[in-house]
Design goal:
The chain is an alpha/beta fold. Helix content is 27%, strand content 31%. The protein folds into 2 domains: 200 residues, Vaccinia Virus protein VP39 (Rossmann fold, 3-Layer(aba) Sandwich), CATH 3.40.50; 64 residues. A 7-stranded mixed beta sheet has the order 3-2-1-4-5-12-11, with helices on both faces. Strand 4, helix 8 and strand 5 form a beta-alpha-beta unit. It holds the Pfam family Methyltransf_25. This is Ribosomal RNA small subunit methyltransferase C. It comes from Azospirillum baldaniorum.
């Protein structure tokens, strides 16, 4: 998560409701529809396949609350789960406490900044930067440092897999009229809530402020309103390719979804598989 987002920001508190898991906790019928709207449907199986192909421990940069970490560990993979947010890592540890001991033993939560990553393991066969994490480092030079750090922790010939939004499908002008989400359920208390989203105009650095508030319905009928906000940086296709190449990666595949469809200007996401030079 963006290192400038405070640990008590509502986007962290409601994260698991906004981006539900089909594998952790109680999956509801509407979860798949939510993930499909976000272009995320199939992301966890995609990364599990990459891990199975690579073998060995996995470096996950931007693990958040464990939406990918725990399925990887359940599948038998050792995971070094890195995030800059202490609150998100606390949620990951709480989830791990409910897992089998062998799953818990495979996960190493680490609080570090992706742009200054320094782990004792430097021969990973696979590093993953999932679900817009690179966009949440909202400065070009810092993004390049994060990719260079990922490369430095991979063995020669190791694989990097990542996904980000396709900016050509995103609004770049200011959105001052709040856009409400479908009703969702808080993973912490089961209360119904709605996320209301606005956005600033894209600035000269390709950054955009996403902000708004959550309306949570309490059992007594009262509504609790909590504001949130974070900044992301839109990354365009050839910019991403140049960033990866300058960090020492050779791009093997650019897909437009997690079913490996060819990327087009209308694709919701950019899903990249790249290999560190030998």
């Amino acid at each position: 998560m963006n290192k400038d987002v405070p640990d008590d920001d509502a986007s962290i508190v409601y994260y698991d409701g906004d981006y539900p898991s089909l594998e952790i906790g109680e999956a509801r019928a509407d979860h798949a529809a939510t993930l499909a709207r976000l272009g995320m449907l199939g992301d966890v199986p995609f990364y599990k396949e990459r891990a199975a192909e690579a073998g060995g421990p996995v470096l996950e940069i931007g693990c958040g609350t464990g939406r990918l970490t725990i399925p990887l560990a359940r599948a038998g993979h050792e995971v070094w789960a890195v995030d800059v947010s202490a609150a998100m890592l606390d949620q990951l540890r709480a989830k791990l406490a409910r897992e089998a001991p062998e799953v818990q033993a495979r996960v190493h939560p680490v609080r570090q900044d992706a742009t200054a990553l320094d782990l004792p393991v430097r021969d990973f066969r696979l590093a993953v930067i999932p679900f817009n994490v690179l966009m949440l480092i909202p400065e070009l030079a810092a993004e390049r440092r994060a990719l260079a750090a990922a490369a430095a922790h991979l063995a020669p010939g190791g694989t990097l897999a990542l996904d980000v939004m396709n900016p050509l499908t995103l609004p770049m002008d200011a959105e001052t009229k709040p856009s409400p989400s479908e009703p969702r359920r808080s993973p912490h208390n089961g209360n119904s809530y709605i996320r209301n989203t606005m956005a600033s105009r894209l600035d000269e650095g390709q950054c955009q402020r996403i902000h708004g508030w959550y309306d949570e319905l309490l059992p007594d009928g009262k509504i609790v309103v909590t504001e949130y906000g974070f900044t992301w940086r839109m990354i365009f296709r050839y910019e991403l390719e140049l960033m990866l190449e300058s960090a020492g990666f050779a791009i093997e595949r650019l897909a437009g979804d997690f079913e490996d469809a060819a990327w087009t200007v209308d694709s919701r996401r950019m899903i990249v598989t790249a290999r560190r030079a030998s």
